[in-house]
Design a protein that fits this description.
Helix content: 40-55%
Shape: globular
Radius of gyration: 23 Å
């Protein structure tokens, strides 16, 4: 029997172990999509205790605590941090097979040198050990990033954001990790939201212009894109219900926008027409700027109305949506291709049943602009586990070129989440190592090194055009 989470954790063959220890483990981390707060990097925040780091905004953990019958008082309520940590420890011991069990223990090993098991009985020991460690200067936000061997981080930022904290970080020569903004214009697109016109006022102020038409909105967004580009932005990100394609004339879209500004209720079809026009426009701008377009979709959000009204979005009440017509995804990309305005595009569906459809859509629109121009993104959110990663990468290998895959991202709000890259890389090496051991791929270590380092780090540098040295 193997030891619990030892140096060969998840690596069952000699080839997998070689690939991980010789190649994957030795390249840095490039986190091209996350939700961490740039202000906390700029101010080099230090956390008072492990609950602040682990439970402060982690709806993954909140969801499991609720599944363990924990009262909301100990999750998002006013319970003391020590009591919240105790409830999480008691939940974790029941999480056999859940990636949170592995992530939590990888974080304890890598940042706190704790190689035991966190549960209800050991919670006091772990609480004291972690909190003592967190008081050290080495555990400030910037030092956590440094010791995680991170070279570049892309945050998630609204078009109306002034990016003040990115400016502070960029001007500080003492911190050599690049922290770049990524463009997230969901609020500008979601005209069905009740606060849409309030948001437009913020965008008007940021762009220093009035928005009285869809043409104005496009001009304001283009103006803000120039600013983001000057600040080093190389990627956009969109949270979509699905990749829609409901084309409409310019006149029709202007009329829909005018109705919304006048306070009229917009039909579902008109909403989709507007969003299609919006996405066609921004995609063309991304092409012009050389940005990558990331499309995250397949999620049904805020399903528990009672808790949404109490806690708001992103609190653990989302689920997989099984409606994402591949025909409209293909039609949307085809429209961009016809117009000569298709940017580098990464498609992430939350529904693993979409993997094979995505794998076939990719091949319809590849070209020589950049290697792997249309990508399937890494196994996302509910699929961010061993089985989900294995399935996504196997499907991608079957239907496209796994060797050109951009690999892992954290999609996280936590500065302790970088071991997720280690978790991914171990699974990657286990998958490829198994193919080699089974005689399905030659043990050509020179080419295997290129593939493993590419997926782990180098491919993303090439794809996004980051100013980093390949390893």
């Amino acid at each position: 029997m193997k030891e619990f989470m030892d140096k060969d954790f998840l690596l069952s063959t000699q080839t997998a172990q070689e690939l991980y220890h010789e190649y994957a483990a030795k390249v840095p981390v490039l986190d091209y999509h996350c939700h961490i707060n740039p202000q906390e990097i700029a101010e080099d925040r230090k956390f008072e205790n492990i609950t602040q780091v682990w439970l402060g905004g982690d709806h993954y953990k909140w969801r499991q605590m609720r599944s363990n019958g924990v009262d909301e008082y100990y999750i998002t309520g006013d319970a003391p941090d020590r009591e919240k940590f105790q409830k999480w420890a008691e939940t974790l011991e029941m999480a056999i097979g859940n990636p949170l069990f592995h992530w939590s223990h990888l974080e304890l090993q890598r940042y706190f040198n704790y190689h035991g098991v966190l549960n209800g009985e050991t919670a006091e020991e772990v609480w004291n050990l972690c909190n003592a460690k967190l008081r050290e200067d080495s555990m400030s936000v910037r030092n956590l990033i440094r010791q995680s061997n991170v070279t570049l981080i892309c945050t998630t930022d609204d078009p109306a954001d002034d990016l003040r904290w990115h400016k502070v970080i960029a001007a500080d020569d003492s911190f050599d990790v690049q922290v770049l903004p990524a463009w997230r214009p969901d609020k500008a697109m979601n005209l069905e939201k009740p606060d849409y016109t309030d948001y437009l006022e913020k965008l008007e102020n940021a762009a220093d212009m009035e928005i009285r038409s869809f043409a104005d909105l496009k001009a304001a967004l283009a103006k803000r894109m120039v600013f983001f580009d000057e600040m080093g932005c190389r990627a956009s990100d969109h949270a979509l219900e699905y990749v829609m394609y409901q084309p409409a004339s310019d006149e029709e879209v202007e009329n829909i926008f005018a109705q919304r500004l006048a306070g009229a209720k917009i039909s579902r079809l008109d909403e989709l027409k507007f969003k299609t026009a919006f996405m066609l426009f921004v995609a063309g701008e991304y092409t012009r700027l050389g940005w990558a377009m990331q499309l995250h979709y397949g999620c049904k959000r805020d399903n528990n109305t009672k808790m949404y009204q109490k806690l708001g979005p992103d609190t653990g009440y989302d689920c997989i949506n099984n409606y994402a017509p591949s025909s409209e995804t293909a039609d949307f990309l085809n429209a961009l291709n016809e117009a000569g305005s298709m940017p580098k595009t990464i498609l992430y569906s939350l529904n693993p049943n979409d993997d094979e459809a995505l794998g076939t859509i990719l091949g319809c629109f590849q070209n020589s602009d950049v290697v792997g121009k249309i990508q399937q993104g890494s196994a996302w959110w509910f699929n961010d586990n061993k089985a989900g990663m294995m399935k996504q990468m196997t499907s991608l290998a079957n239907l496209s070129l796994l060797g050109n895959f951009n690999g892992m991202l954290t999609d996280s709000r936590s500065f302790l989440s970088y071991p997720r890259h280690e978790y991914f890389r171990r699974i990657l090496c286990e998958l490829i190592g198994g193919w080699v051991e089974n005689g399905e791929y030659p043990k050509d270590m020179k080419n295997l090194e290129k593939i493993i380092k590419g997926i782990s780090y180098n491919n993303a540098i090439r794809y996004f055009g980051f100013d980093l040295e390949m390893k």
